[in-house]
Automatic annotation (TrEMBL):
It comes from Tropicimonas omnivorans. Residues 3-217 form the ABC transporter domain. Keywords: ATP-binding, Nucleotide-binding, Transport. PANTHER family: IMPORT ATP-BINDING PROTEIN (PTHR24220), TRANSPORTER, PUTATIVE-RELATED (PTHR24220:SF659). This is ABC transporter ATP-binding protein. Pfam families: ABC_tran. The keyword Nucleotide-binding applies. GO terms for molecular function: ATP binding. InterPro entries: AAA+_ATPase, ABC_transporter-like_ATP-bd, ABC_transporter-like_CS, ABC_transpr_LolD-like, MacB-like_ATP-bd, P-loop_NTPase.
Length: 218
């Protein structure tokens, strides 16, 4: 199993201001499976993705990602898990401004010791980036930057790709193209995919759906 989440709890704030965001969330995802995470704004989609991505700890419950129990993992072990097993794609592309497209694409795979130049070239070709490899992020359009972010997430062939509204900043036509690339390339890479989205159309393209409401999955 890629994700085994049992009774995940998460609250923010203290005292009067304490607010429960996730309440007894259980979910499992098998290798290579795709799942759309939906729910209205503020329902906790990003919070759950951050917990799955070992970016933020849960307050309660059990969580195993790619076989690793997250309970009690220190910062270094969490960072290693992310580097080795997880690809992250966010709405803000989070590219490294001082690195070229080629440098951004290979960054995580190099850090994970899993650089595969042939796969990188294939990704760059599929993502329409071959002619832009020596450019810097600020010389690219939003759609191009998002394609670099997808390539970077997939370059290490991570077991799990977590995408948070990955097409939120793009016009509809570009968003559709980026979605197709993300789902096709994740399938080619053998990666499982969890994607938070507000788009019914994009959610419908993934095999499974989980809907967050009042802190619970429905
Ligand atoms: N670090 C934080 N500190 C305090 N509250 C937070 C924090 N992160 C998230 N929240 C709150 O948790 C709730 C869930 O936020 P989250 O971003 O997970 O929702 P979402 O479903 O991803 O929303 P959207 O669709 O608008 O991105 C919100 O009420 C938000 O204000």
């Amino acid at each position: 199993m890629l994700i085994e989440a049992n009774q995940i709890e998460k609250s923010f704030g203290t005292g009067e201001a304490r607010r429960t965001v996730l309440s007894g969330v259980s979910l499992s995802l098998a290798s290579g499976e795709t799942l759309a995470l939906t729910g209205e704004s503020g329902s906790g989609k990003s919070t759950l993705l951050n917990i799955f991505g070992a970016l933020e700890p849960a307050d309660g419950g059990n969580l195993r990602i790619a076989g690793t129990d997250l309970a009690g993992l220190g910062d270094t072990a969490r960072a290693r898990l992310r580097r080795d097993r997880i690809g992250l794609v966010f709405q803000q592309f989070n590219l490294v401004p001082s690195l070229t497209v080629a440098g951004n694409l290979s960054l995580q795979a190099r850090l994970a010791g899993r650089q595969d130049k042939g796969w990188e070239q294939h990704l760059a070709g599929q993502l329409g980036l071959t002619d832009h490899l020596s450019r810097y992020p600020d010389q690219l359009s939003g759609g191009q930057q998002q394609r670099v972010a997808i390539g970077r997430a997939l370059a290490s062939r991570p077991a799990l790709v977590l995408a948070d509204e990955p097409t939120g900043n793009l016009d509809e036509e570009t968003a559709d193209r980026v979605m197709t690339l993300l789902t096709d390339l994740a399938a080619e890479s053998g990666s499982g995919l969890v994607m938070a989205t507000h788009s019914e159309r994009h959610a419908a393209r993934l095999a499974r759906r989980a809907h967050l409401k009042l802190g619970r999955l429905r």
